[in-house]
Amino acid sequence: MFINGNLETTFKHRFTNLWEIDALEVSGDLRFEINLHHKDGIAFHYNRFDENTVVRNNRTMNEWRLEERSGEMPFQKGKIFQMIISCTTEQYNVFVNGNLETTYNHHFTNLWEIDVLEVSGDLSLTDLYA
């Protein structure tokens, strides 16, 4: 992954309020993942695979839950896109280039414990808006 032109393996951003993250601007080719962490795991895992599918999941105490795969692939190889992850009391809403791409119901409900955004994979992170 490239961050501001520098090769990095993972970008982690610590925040105190889940509502701080408004948008990510990234471009990529084959595979990337975005995770919202809490102290015991991952509240929201969003993963784009090179098999032309997007996976959503969560993990608590080192145990993955049942993953969700649905919808169309919203990404194109090498194209810049903007992603907005918004959070309501019931679910995450993932927007790609202004269009609602998917929703994911909360399985981890202590939202105030989510404190790290992790981005990794085959992409370039150009901006993070808070």
TrEMBL record:
PROSITE patterns: GALECTIN. One of its GO terms (cellular component) is nucleus. It comes from the Eukaryota. Keywords: Lectin. Residues 1-130 form the Galectin domain. GO terms for biological process: negative regulation of CD4-positive, alpha-beta T cell proliferation; negative regulation of type II interferon production; positive regulation of gene expression. PANTHER family: GALECTIN, GALECTIN-9C. This is Galectin.
